Every structure is written in structure tokens, then in C-alpha cells.
Amino acid sequence: MTYTVSFASVGEADAAVDAVDDLSDVLDDATLVEGSITTSDPALTAVLDGDQLAVTGSVPVGDTVTVSYTVTVDEYDEQDNHHLANVVGNPDGSCPTGGCAGTENPVRHISVTKSAAPTEGVQAGDTVEYTVTVVNDGGAAYTADDPAVVEDDMTDLLDDATYDGDAVAVASDGSEVPAPTFDAPRLQWSGPLAVDETLTITYTTTVTNLGDHDLVNTAGPVCSDPEICDPPVEVGTLLSHITPAKSSDPDSGEAVEAGQVVTYTLSWTNDGQTTGALDSTDDLSDVLDDAEMTSQPVVDEAHAGSITAAFDAEAREIRVTGDLAPGETVQVTYQVTVLPDGERGDNVASNVLTPDAPPFVPPGDCGDDCPPPFEPPTTRHPMGDLDDWKTVDPASGTTVQPGQVMTYTLHFENAGAAPVEVERDDVLTGVLDDATVTSEPSSPDEAVSASQITDGRFTVSGTLEPGQHATLTYEVTVNEDGARGDDRLGNFLVGNGEQPPTECVVTDPERPDCSVNHVFAVVVSKSSDPDSGAELAEDDEVTYTLTFENVSSNADSEPTAIAYTDHMVDVLDDATLTAGPTSSRKEVTAVVVGNTIQLTGAVPAGVMTTVTYTVTVKDYGEQGNHALGNVVAWAGEEPVCVADSPLCTANELRRPTREHLATRKRLATRERLRTTAWPARVPSRPWWPWQRCCCWAPVPR
């Protein structure tokens, strides 16, 4: 500020000057610029003594002589009363005629503070709110023509966050104030601000954590030259940047097989600016349908006390929690073992490690320049799943005759998601004592091939792609009488080098691993009315017919003895035997023993004998598994029921409808009314007060 003191001579003679400019209330808030005291005429001298500027000399008649000097206003926190005032008077402090000349200049000033919330534990995707507080703590108001200006510089903030565009300004006195404006990377407010008034500016940002992993921005007043503003205030929030990773041995993408151990390694690296939570979930739901946990998760030794890893068997997940310091990496390892073929789910062990908070979040307004979103690390291990079975024509369990050709078909299917090796043995020992191979094993599929038959067995080998189904067939012809062994053709499909079981026990009728056929003159079959496969309801009747036909053409041969068992255990849990069993010929007897019918006797050559019996389906609530299933088998052997076998039947039982229940209730009521012995009324005494009635006596129906 430049001050000018003017002395004018308005009298008839030179005017003497002896005055003092009191700068005490100027120099407490400002500093005199050295060498700035000047006079316009040597007739006056001006000398500063302390904070008093003494001016002496004379001014010629009619002239005006000036004294000027310049001060620089001190920084606000170095000022005293923020008010520059001075007065020119006599040396004794009195005012000359006309009064003391003086000036007053209050110092304008705004104070700016800034805060952020939250400041700790901030992660990608979080919202951080900033508050800029502006206070006019100076001596004069800012006006619309000469406004206060505040700027928030977000240069070092927007590399790790996006501005949400929601800045608002509110004055403490409730007055309407202009809205803040944003011109990246700066937010600015400009407007009037009265003395002692406070302005609050708030806005939010969304953390992306794509930069240097700290949120730093500055806010302060904006001044025009030569005004010097207070330095801006800085607010900083440090961010952690924890990136999860996952690896496996074997590597992700490699195929694994039954019994193989897969080792998983989870890791987290913090290359951020502060300690942060690595809390994450490793989802094993699509692993544990194909494998079992055989080694629990273990945290590396350096972090065993600060990081925890816990396996939740019910949720099928591993939960890893704890804080990781900047610059550190932690690892967690565990193992699973692949389940056997046929016991797995989708044959793909896939899992994903998902952090509670991703290491970064792409901004929402970056258009084509957006970085790809964070993808949680995953691993994937496909598995081949070999399913094999065999069929024979005529069906397993049926009888065959000398000279009959039997066709065996081996099936191999890869139900998995990776190629699978085929290495299986077909054991013919129980066939070749009663039959001769007349067509060697061969396959129309190049994927599998058969070795030569050696010691009653051959090996099928090859490779099947996912979903591929290959077959291999061969034929045998049943030997004539006198050239057979035990008249029982038993055949087993087993693992390479394995020994077959002693009995053919079928666990999956659709895909059996064994077959058995007896060489016998009597052909046995079974049927039902309604047909097998028909859906039945409660109270329905089912009539079963067992047929024994001796197909021998030698009329002079002795009748062929039979001994069969009809297994009814899966019928009588849902139905009641209500008729039979009845044999069409006296030579064959049928006796109920427990849940079976024992069939014994003899069938002459060229004769067909039948045995029939009837069951009635129980009420739905009294049924067992709501299905009727039975099979006739050679006495003393395990029953064999394979697909399309003539030896067994199956019927599903449906749940009764509301209409059916209502009809049954009406019929039951009608039957009860029909069979009840109702009493007869004999008039003899009053029945109602106005009627005469007699006693009641029962009468016969």
C-alpha cells in the first residue's frame, strides 16, 4: 500500500510544516518498504522514528508538497489486529485546525481448512467425502464484485479416485451462495462472504485405486497479484493395494484323474502405501463335487500369527482374513484329492478366489479408455470319466440253447471333460467252457481296439475324447450237448489285470459290468397286465404271468426240471397278493415263501407252462417306494434285471388326485350305508312333542 500525505500552503506566506504521521497501527500489520519514503519537494523532509514519521520544513505560498511511502501487508498470521490505520497530527498528538488527516484499511482474509472421511481402511470402490471450510476471519467482507475465491486441486487425487460431481456450498448464515464449479482437476468456488461468515463445501469421490495408491489433494484461497494467500492445506489418505493370486500343481488347465492330488497356492501381495485387510473367500463348491479336501489350508510361517485361513465344509469355502503390511506377500496352501470315476459331479474342478474388496475399480466415465475390470483369479482342472458296461443278446439272465449265437457288446463312454484312457479287460473264462468264439472282438471306432484273446480274456485299450462313446462287439456260439462245461455263461468287464468277482451282481441295470446266461431247454419269461412301464394307481390290480417253455424238439426226451425264484420284495411293499399263484400244469408248483414265489417241477419237451398271480396296489399312504418291481431268476442265484430283459417288470405308482380321493370317499360312504343294520321305527309313543312315535327295534337286512 502506498500512502501519500499532502501539505498545501493556502495563506499569504510560506507555510511552516511540523507534523507527525502515526504509523503505529500500520506497522503492526505491515512492513515499510525500505527507501520508499519520498517528498515531492526538498522543502520538506520526512524521517521515520520508530513508528512515527516526522515531517518538517515549509511549503511556498500556493504550492502543495507531498510525502509518500509504501508498506507491504504482512502475512495474516504475522499481523496484529488485521487493521491498517494512521493519522497525521501535531508532534504533541493534537490535531491542527481543520482536524487530523488519516486513513483506515481493514485487512481481508479467509481461512481454509479441509477434512476427509473416512481416512483409514479405505478400499477400492469406497466413497470418501471431503469437506472444505472457508471462514472470513478478516476485517472486511468479500463482495460479488470482489469475491472470495477458493480452489481445491485434485491432481493427485483423481489418479486413484473419480469425482462424483456432487459438490455443494452452504453458507453459515443461510444466504444463497454460488455453486462450486469443476474443471478437472480443480474444484473452485467464488462468491461473496461476509465478515465472520463460514462457507462449507462438500463433495465425494469414489476410490478406483488405479494410481499411486494415495488420495492427496489441496485446498486454499486464490489471490490475484500482488496479494499473497495462505498456503493451501493438504489432506492425504493412504491406500493399501492388495492383489490376490492363485496357482495350482498341476497347472490350471491340465487334466487330472481319479486319486490325483492337486495342490493349490493362494497368495496376496500389498504394493500399496499402507496396511490393509486381505479378507477373501476361496469358493470350492465346484471343486468338492469332484474331489475331497485332504490337506487343510496352511498359512506361511511368516504370517501364521496375523493371517487366518479356515475351511468351512458346509459352505465349501475357505475364508482367509487378516491385515497385510505394505511390501509383503502371504501364501496359503491346501490340497484336494480327485474322487474315483463315477463318484464325481461335473468332472471339472473349478474355483475362484474373490476378495471382499477388489484391488481396483475402473472409473465409470472412462469410455473406451477404461481398463478391464478386475477378474478374481481362478483355476480349472478337467477330468476324464470313463463309464463302461456290457450287454448281451439274448439278454443277460435269459436261457440259451445249443447252437445259439450270442452277441456281446462292450460300451465305453467318456462322461468327463478331458480325454480319458481306456484300459479294461473282458473276462470270458465262464463263457468259453460252454461256447466258442465265432466272431473276434472288433470295433467300428478307431478310438478303441482289442487285443487277442489269451487265457480266456482280452484287453480293450484306447483314448476317448469328452463325450465320445465307442463300442466293441464279438460273438460266441453255444456248444452242443456233451461239449459244454457248467452250462452257465458268465462274463465280466473288469479293470486291466483285475480278477472278476465270483457272482454277477448288477448294481446299475442300465449299465451292467457283467452278464450271465444258462444253457437250458426251458425259455423263461415274465409279463404283467397292465404292461411293464404302465403307471398305476392305488387299488389297481396287476396280474403277473410267468412262462416256462421247453423248446426241445426231441419229443422222447425226459421233461426238463426247473427251479426258479420270483422275487417280489419290491412289489409287496406297495401291494398285497390277492390271487394265486396258480400253475397251468400240475407238473409245476408255485409256493409263496416270504417275499418270493418258489417255482419247481418239470416241463416236457414242446410244452409251455404258465404261473399267474395277482396283486392289488395299497393306498398311497401305506405304500413303500411307490414302485412295483420284480424279477424271476435261477434259484439260488442273484437276480439279474437289465434293460429290456424279459425276466423283470417295473411300474411306477402315481399319487392320487383330489378327484380320486373324493370319489373314493363317496364310494366308501355308499358302501357303509349299504351294509349298516338300520333300526325300524314302531309308532307307540311321542317322538316329538307334536308327533307320536314308539320305541326302536333293530330289524334284519
Model description:
The protein is rod-shaped and about 180 Å long. Residues 684-696 have low confidence and may be disordered. It is mainly beta. The chain has five domains: 2-106, Immunoglobulin-like, CATH 2.60.40; 110-238, Sandwich (Immunoglobulin-like); 242-365 and 375-382, Immunoglobulin-like; 386-512, Immunoglobulin-like, CATH 2.60.40; 522-652, Immunoglobulin-like. Strands 22, 23, 25, 26, 28 and 29 form a six-stranded antiparallel beta sheet that branches. A six-stranded mixed beta sheet has the order 31-39-38-33-36-35.
Could you report the average pLDDT, rounded to the nearest whole number?
91
- Roughly what percent helix? under 10%
Can you summarize the main beta sheet? 6 strands, antiparallel
**How many discrete structural domains?**
5
Structural class, by secondary structure, is: mainly beta
**Tally of contiguous helical segments:** 3
Shape: rod-shaped
Examine the secondary-structure arrangement and name the CATH architecture of the largest domain: Sandwich
| Rg over CA atoms | 53 Å
Count all strands and give the number: 52
Classify the beta-strand content into a percent band.
Answer: over 45%
CATH C-level name of the largest domain: Mainly Beta
Reported by name, the CATH topology of the largest domain is Immunoglobulin-like
